[in-house]
Amino acid sequence: MSAKPESEKPVNPLEASGQVVDRRLGLDRRDLPGSSTEQTGLERRRGPGRRRSDFTKAAEEGEMTDEQFLFLVAIDAFKKANNRAFPAWSDVLEVIRLLGYRKTMPSELNLPNAEDWREPPNSEAGVRPDRWEERNRREQELDAIDEFEQHFGEAA
Predict the structure, then answer these.
(1) Mean pLDDT over residues 40-58, rounded?
(2) Which residues of 3-31 are buried (b: 16+ CB within 10 A; e: fewer)?
(3) DSSP letters of the chain?
(4) pLDDT grade, residue 78 (50/70/90)?
(5) Helix axes 89-98, 66-81, angle to 10 degrees
(6) How far is Cα 95 from Cα 87, in angstroms, rounded to an integer?
(7) Does 90 score more than 70 pLDDT?
């Protein structure tokens, strides 16, 4: 039995259109024409000669750096304070800025759909509404009064 020539092999219309690639053929869909080959700097695929950074490796193995631990504690505190199991990305960015992080260096990523920018290292976080401290202080005072009344009763 001889192998069929390429022209006689059945052609899957989806495969011919480039929508589906059978992995058993040894083709990588990322190498096909029309696939985006532009690297952003966020790729984590590891292949021969590509290792995890010490930063990533330590976190994945449960040995966090001080920076990673502080971020984890800050996110956990945010979730508890705001009764949110899953903070939105804007919430995560708020926590990051309140930790003191600012965009002071040029990006090491290639993001063609976003403009890179920088700000002074001493710039405000800019995530709190106007007069937030005043309102927060007032809320804390009201909470203290409520707690006092619950503990000692309203007749005190």
Answers:
(1) 71
(2) eeeeeeeeeeeeeeeeeebeeeeeeeeee
(3) -PPPPGGGS---HHHHHTS---GGGT--GGGSTTS-----S------TT----HHHHHHHTT---HHHHHHHHHHHHHHHHTT-SS--HHHHHHHHHHTT----S--SS--TTS------TT-----SPTTHHHHHHHHHHHHHHHHHHHHH-TT-
(4) very high
(5) 120
(6) 10
(7) yes
Q: Is the dihedral of CA 71, 117, 44, 30 positive or negative?
A: positive
Contact yes or no for 74/98 (Cβ under 8 A): yes
What sign does the CA torsion over 108, 109, 112, 115 have?
negative
Give the tokens for residue 18: 């480039």
pLDDT (tens digit, 9 = 90+) per residue, 92-126?
Answer: 999 999 999 999 999 999 998 999 999 999 999 98
pLDDT tens per residue, range 4-44: 555 555 555 555 555 666 667 766 666 666 556 677 877 76
How far is the C-alpha of 42 from the C-alpha of 36, rounded, in Å?
14
